[in-house]
Write a structure and sequence with these properties.
By secondary structure, the protein is an alpha/beta fold. The chain has helices at 2-8, 22-28, 50-67, 79-90, 148-158, 176-186, 198-202, 209-212, 241-248, 258-296, 327-336, 367-371, 376-391, 396-407, 420-424, and strands spanning 11-12, 39-40, 43-44, 71-73, 97-100, 133-136, 139-140, 145-146, 162-166, 189-193, 216-220, 231-235, 299-300, 312-316, 339-340, 342-344, 361-365. The two termini are 37 Å apart. The relative contact order is 0.16.
């Protein structure tokens, strides 16, 4: 109850979060949460799966329609598990080689060499388990994106089995098309971690990885795609379907949180109906927020590129280190005023000797505030709250009252169905 009350009076700006609709919550709160259904639709290890199969098949079909692909596996229970499925499918059993993004330059922790694993036990010296052999792609710090020419050299030298695009800091489309030829040259598959941008892609924004050369996509279903916490694997290559299915089950998991599959089906239906409008506003709000923060005196990265083409903006707050502190300090300060954000490493933080617990950056996202009905004028007001706290050093307890008053007008979820009954009426159109 305390948590709910706090968030109802807060401004939620964490880029990896969103809020589900009443219909999705209703679907998740069903008897499926008590059941098991190992295997594929129609090929279960357990009995009692007749209606589970029907709902999961609907979810699969909606995912295929939304993402315009021939195969969708909605069994992964998270984006990380979906990533592991790609590693399983595209790297060798005796220790694979992958190119990806380093964490300070946008990569996710599941892309890191000591953590990334195909899901198979791979043993190093003295029986210690090791992850994949990962070589990082070259990075253009000014433009906050992969350096194509530098990455081509790395790929040719390293000869990875898998090139993984995507990340946790994801402002601009990655050069999938530009690196497809060199991937072919060295015999590498291309994976794309779309955990953050899945909703943008599904609604026709940001980029179209499967048409640009990606062999498969791993997604989270609860970021820009505003469903329950879950994951999925997508491909438009029919020859990869069986391999990708086996890479999920039995390689990585048994049961797959069936209630969340039901919720995901509703979320996909909502995005087929409302996603085009919703995600257009998510991106516009991010760009407006970036501009407003810059005008207020903040160093928002990539102003020369319009700040972002996604739901995220990144702010370098190192110039406030002396008076206010770095990212971790500012995160705590904002939380005192019920503004919920997360600190984030910047590409140059390691060189500056900064730790991830108190880095030089903030990563801000507009998916949740947009779904609560906020628009461009609200983004400008939120930027003023940032200025009041960080630049003007206003008492966070006073700003907290202003935030609570501001939030009173935004208490319901938009771009959605209000109940599962209203959602079911739309199924006949899809």
């Amino acid at each position: 109850m305390n948590h709910h009350e706090t968030f109802n009076q807060s401004i939620p700006l964490i880029a990896s979060e969103n809020i589900t609709s009443p219909a999705v919550r209703e679907a998740c709160n069903c008897d499926f949460s008590h059941r098991y259904a190992e295997g594929w639709v129609g090929q279960r290890v357990y009995a009692g799966c007749k209606y589970i199969d029907e709902i999961e098949q609907i979810c699969i079909d909606l995912a295929k329609q939304y993402f315009r692909c021939v195969h969708a596996d909605v069994r992964p229970i998270s984006g990380v598990v979906a990533n592991l499925a790609l590693y399983n499918a595209f790297t060798s059993e005796n220790g694979g080689r992958m190119c990806a993004m380093p964490i300070p330059k946008g990569g996710h922790i599941s892309h890191a060499p000591k953590i990334a694993s195909s899901g198979r036990p791979i043993y190093g010296t003295a029986g210690t388990v090791r992850g994949l052999d990962v070589r990082y792609l070259a990075f253009d710090e000014k433009n906050m994106n992969i350096d194509v020419d530098g990455s081509i050299k790395i790929i040719r030298e390293f000869k990875p089995e898998l090139i993984l695009f995507g990340g946790s800091v994801f402002l601009f489309p990655h050069p999938v098309k530009e690196l497809r030829n060199v991937a072919n040259e060295v015999g590498a598959s291309i994976g794309y971690d779309a955990a953050h941008v899945a909703g943008l892609i599904g609604s026709g924004y940001f980029q179209d990885p499967l048409r640009e050369g990606a062999d498969a996509i791993a997604i989270s279903t609860h970021k820009t795609l505003p469903g329950p916490q879950h994951g999925a694997v997508l491909t438009d290559r029919e020859d990869l379907i069986d391999e990708l299915k086996n890479a999920v089950f039995p390689a990585l998991m048994s049961n797959h949180h069936l209630h969340n599959v039901a919720g995901l089906a509703i979320a996909l239906l909502e995005m087929l109906e409302f996603g085009k409008e919703y995600h257009k506003k998510v991106i516009e709000n991010a760009q407006t927020f970036g501009e407003a923060l810059a005008e207020a005196g903040f160093n928002v990265l990539c102003e020369h590129l319009g700040f972002t083409k996604s739901h995220q903006i990144v702010v370098d707050v190192s110039n406030f280190q002396k008076d206010v502190g770095l990212g971790g300090d500012i995160e705590k300060l904002l939380e005192k005023a019920n503004i919920i954000i997360n600190r984030n490493l910047l590409p140059w933080d390691i060189r500056e000797g900064r730790h991830y617990m108190n880095p030089g950056g903030l990563r801000l996202g507009t998916s949740e505030v947009t779904r609560l009905g906020m628009g461009k004028s609200e983004m400008k007001q939120i930027a003023e709250f940032f200025k009041s706290l960080i630049i003007d050093k206003k008492d966070p307890n006073k700003v907290k009252k202003e935030v609570a008053k501001f939030r009173r007008e935004f208490q319901s979820v938009k771009y959605c169905f209000q109940s599962t009954n209203s959602a079911y009426g739309y199924l006949k159109f899809y």
